[in-house]
Amino acid sequence: MGFQTSVNQQPAIGVPGDFASNNPTATVLAGEGALVAGSGGVTVAAFAWIGTDGKTVTNVGTTAPDGFVHRELQGLIANIYDEATMLIPAGYMVSLYAAGDFFAVSKTAATRGQKVFASTADGSISTGAVGATVTGAIETPFYVGSAGAAGDTIKITTWDHH
Fold first, then answer.
1. What is the strand order of the sheet 115-119 is part of?
2. What confidence tens digit (pLDDT) does each residue in 129-140 have?
3. Which of 65, 87, 102, 147 could covalently link to 47 via disulfide, CB atoms 3.0 to 4.6 Å apart?
4. Within 10 Å of residue 74's Cβ, how many Cβ atoms?
C-alpha cells in the first residue's frame, strides 16, 4: 500500500491487521512492553512466534504460532523512498493476539468456515479445510469469517466457526 493513486466508489472492507468487529479480543499474556520485534522486524497482519527468551517475536516458527500481529500503527517508514510499511522494526514493542476478529490477506482463496494456516517461514496466511495439511504452514485457532479470492482482504476469527 502506498500513496493514493485512485478513488474507489466503495470503501475498502478494512485494513489488514485491524480489528474486524467489536467482539472480545485476547492478547498473549506477556506483560507490559515485554514483547519486542526480533532481528529483521515483525510483519503486521501475520502470525508470529515468541522466541525462547520469552521476549523476542518473529514471523518464523515451527510449532503453532503464539498469536496474530495486530495493526497498532507501530510500523516505521525508515527508508525515505518507501511510501508505506507493515513492518515493525527490530526492538519495537509488539502486541500478539490469541483471539479476536481481524482483517487479513490470504495467499489462497478463502471460504467462510475454513481454517486459517500460518506459514512457518513468514507468518503469512493460507486457508484450508479443518485438519488439512498445508505445505509449509501450520493450523491456527482462527477460522475464515468472510470469503475472498487469493490476495483479497478477508476477516479471520476465533469466535465464528461457520
1. 101-105, 153-157, 137-144, 115-119, 125-128
2. 999 999 999 999
3. 65
4. 17
